[in-house]
Amino acid sequence: MVEAKLLYKILGSLLIMLGLLMGGCALMAGCYQEDDIMAFLISSLFTGCCGFIFKYLGRNATNDMSRRTAYLVVTLSWLLYSLFGMLPYIIGGYINSVTDAYFETMSGFTTTGATILDDVERLPHALLFWRSLSQWIGGLGIVFFTIAILPSLVGGSVKVFAAEATGPVRTKMHPRLSTNAKWICSIYLVLTVACILSYYAAGMEWFDSVNYSMSTTATGGFAPHNDSVEHYHSAAVEYVSLLFQFLSGINFTLLYIVIFKRQLRQLVQNSEFRLYLFVVSFSAIVIMAILIYNNGYGTERAFRCALFQVVSFITTTGLFNDDAGAWPHITWVILGICMFLGACAGSTSGGFKCIRGSMVLKAMQNEFRQILHPSAVLPIKVNGQNVPSSKVATLLAFFALYVVMCLISATIMIAAGIDNTNAITIALSCMSNVGPTLGTEIGPVMSWAGLPDGIKWICSFLMLVGRLEIMSVMVLFTRGFWTDN
C-alpha cells in the first residue's frame, strides 16, 4: 500500500520550499526592476498555496515509509517541480507553449541543459537566475537537497535516498543519512563558491559568475549567453570552466575525503577515478591531434578546445567553447562515447557512469579467465571490495534497459522525420542528461525549438528517466509495484 497522507505531506513540504525559492527570484526581479516580478510573485503564491493544501491533506501522517512510497515520492517530486517550475515562463509570457515550458524546466532540474530558447539573452535577470538555480538544485537531487537542509520533512529518508541516488554502489561517510547529506552538500557549496570566485577573477561580472558557477558545478549547461562560455573569448574563463566541470564529475564522497580528510591516496587508488581520468586524457589527446592536422588549429587552441569539449561531454555539462558539430565526424564518435559513459557515480553528472564501465570491463576480463580456468571462482572487485552477483545482474539489466530505451526513442524520432545522427544523439543526450547533440539539424550550439511537440515530451520523459537512472521511474510501470505486498 502507498501511504497517501505521507505522500501528500512530503510533496507539500517540497512545493512550499519551491514557492520560497520563487519568492527569492521575485525579490531579485524587484532589485533589477524588470517586468518578470509579477510572474514570480504569482508563481510563488500559487505554488506555496498548493503546497499548504498538500500539507493539510497529509496532516497527522506518520514517517513510516515503505519502499514503494519512496519511489513514488521521488518520481512525483521531479514531475511536480517541473510542472510548477515552468509557471514563471508561462505567466511572464517568455515561453507561450506548455510543451516548450515543461521541456525547458525538466531540462533544468535534470541538469540536461537542452534549451528551446533561440535567444536566451532576451530573458530578464531573475529568469536567467531561475534557470541556473533549477539546475543547481537538481544537481544533487531535489529530495536529497531537502534531506540535507530539513531532514525532518522527509520520512524514511534512507529509502528515498536509495531511489534518487546515482550509481550502483552507495558509499556513506556517516551512519546518519542527514549528516552524510550535509557533508556532501558542504562539498557542493565549496565547489560552487570557489567556482564563482574563480570566474570573477577570470573577468566575469558577479551575476554571470554566479549563473555560470551553478551551471558548471551542477554539470547542467544552461548559460546566460547564447554562445555559452565562448561569449567571453577568454582562455582563462574556459580553463576555469573545464577545471570545475572535471571536479564536479568526481564522486563527492571521494572529494570530501580528499579535501577535508586530506587523504589524496584514496583518489589515486580509486579505480573509477582512474578510468575517468584515462578516458578524459586519451580522448582529449586524440581529438587535439585531429584538430591540429585536419582543421589547422594551433597547439594551444586545439588542446583547450579538445579538452573542454571532452570534459563537457563526459561530465554531461553541455557548455561549449567551440562548435564541435563542425569538427570531423570521427570526433563525434569519441564525444558520443564520452556522452554515453559519463563521469563518476555520486557526482552531479549523468550517463552510464565510470564505475559501471569499470565493472563491465572487469566482468569481461573474468570471462576470458574463466575460459582458461573453468573451475576458478573469479569475483568482481571494485576498490578492493567484492561486488555481489546481484549487483552484477542489476548492472546488466540497467545496461539493457539503457540501450533499449535509446534505440526505441531514436526509432520513433527517425519515424518522425529526424535524421539518423540527430535521432541517436538526441536520445543519448536526453538519457545521459548531456544537452548538446551532434548533427546538422540540431548541433551542439543550437536550440531544440525545431523538434515536434510529441518528440519534446518523449525527450522530457527520457531526461527524467536518465536522471533517476531508469529503475526508479520504470518500476512504477510494473504491475507488481501496485499489486504486490
From TrEMBL:
<feature type="transmembrane region" description="Helical">
    <location>
        <begin position="136"/>
        <end position="162"/>
    </location>
</feature>
<feature type="transmembrane region" description="Helical">
    <location>
        <begin position="455"/>
        <end position="477"/>
    </location>
</feature>
<feature type="transmembrane region" description="Helical">
    <location>
        <begin position="183"/>
        <end position="202"/>
    </location>
</feature>
<dbReference type="Pfam" id="PF02386">
    <property type="entry name" value="TrkH"/>
</dbReference>
<feature type="transmembrane region" description="Helical">
    <location>
        <begin position="242"/>
        <end position="261"/>
    </location>
</feature>
<keyword id="KW-0406">Ion transport</keyword>
<keyword id="KW-1133">Transmembrane helix</keyword>
<dbReference type="InterPro" id="IPR004772">
    <property type="entry name" value="TrkH"/>
</dbReference>
<keyword id="KW-0812">Transmembrane</keyword>
<keyword id="KW-0813">Transport</keyword>
<keyword id="KW-0472">Membrane</keyword>
<comment type="similarity">
    <text>Belongs to the TrkH potassium transport family.</text>
</comment>
<keyword id="KW-0633">Potassium transport</keyword>
<feature type="transmembrane region" description="Helical">
    <location>
        <begin position="395"/>
        <end position="418"/>
    </location>
</feature>
<dbReference type="InterPro" id="IPR003445">
    <property type="entry name" value="Cat_transpt"/>
</dbReference>
<protein>
    <submittedName>
        <fullName>TrkH family potassium uptake protein</fullName>
    </submittedName>
</protein>
<keyword id="KW-0997">Cell inner membrane</keyword>
<feature type="transmembrane region" description="Helical">
    <location>
        <begin position="70"/>
        <end position="91"/>
    </location>
</feature>
<feature type="transmembrane region" description="Helical">
    <location>
        <begin position="39"/>
        <end position="58"/>
    </location>
</feature>
<keyword id="KW-1003">Cell membrane</keyword>
<feature type="transmembrane region" description="Helical">
    <location>
        <begin position="273"/>
        <end position="293"/>
    </location>
</feature>
<keyword id="KW-0630">Potassium</keyword>
<feature type="transmembrane region" description="Helical">
    <location>
        <begin position="330"/>
        <end position="352"/>
    </location>
</feature>
